[in-house]
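COMPLEX REQUEST
Ligand: magnesium ion
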Amino acid sequence: MIVALLNQTRGAGRTTLAVQIAGELALQGQRVALLDADGHSGALEWAEARRRNSLPALFQTIGVSSRELRGGLWGLQATLDHLIIDTPSHSADALRSALLAADTVLLPTRPERPAMGRCAATMQLVAEAQAAELATTAALVFTRAPIGTSVEPGAEVTVCGLRLPVAASMVRERMSFALSRGTGLLVHEIDLAGQAEGDVRRLVGEVFGVLPAVAGG
Ligand SMILES: Nc1ncnc2c1ncn2[C@@H]1O[C@H](COP(=O)(O)OP(=O)(O)O)[C@@H](O)[C@H]1O
Ligand SMILES: [Mg+2]
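STATUS: Structure written out below.
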């Protein structure tokens, strides 16, 4: 599967989720690569922090241009089970290219209405791709969700007349996600109680069908 994390809002949690999803798939024995279409503060930076801290890579992190995304990614899919694409917030070109390459797109967003409102431009791009029968599946993923937030299975969100389903598995606001970003660590390497990894594992199960979907706890 090729899954792209998109949201034109900075700080939405794209890189954090892309890295943790790739890490979880690698832990489950899947052959996965993380593609960074955001030269500035994307997944490559995380991978570099991991390398600096002498941690094993677990999966390849590769910088890609919009042109490479559109050009079919050197046939990487043939040798890997999954590709995860981290995208920038500032480049509509990169987002469109990621939509061309991906079969599933996830839009991470905080669950509050104003944050969801800021997804409208990205939802519009997704709607255009779906109208052109490009990205087959798209969903919002609630990230940094406060305790008490819940999502009914099958829930949908409408923003500016655009409608998208919401993943039932959400990612909570947790210190280990915040620590992961600068250290190159995966959350299971930080949070030994496994709560953050549980968030990621449930989401991976729901999106990739690796595990049965379980409502977020
Ligand atoms: N679930 C979370 N809990 C706590 N902090 C988070 C979570 N997700 C992201 N963050 C923090 O929010 C900031 C933005 O996240 P990042 O993944 O870099 O967003 P984006 O790639 O969309 O710009 C980072 O400082 C990151 O550590
Ligand atoms: Mg980022």
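REMARKS: Residues 10-16, 143-144, 171, 173-174, 177-178, 181 surround adenosine-5'-diphosphate (ligand 1) (CB under 6 Å). The domain at 2-207 is CATH 3.40.50.300 (Rossmann fold).
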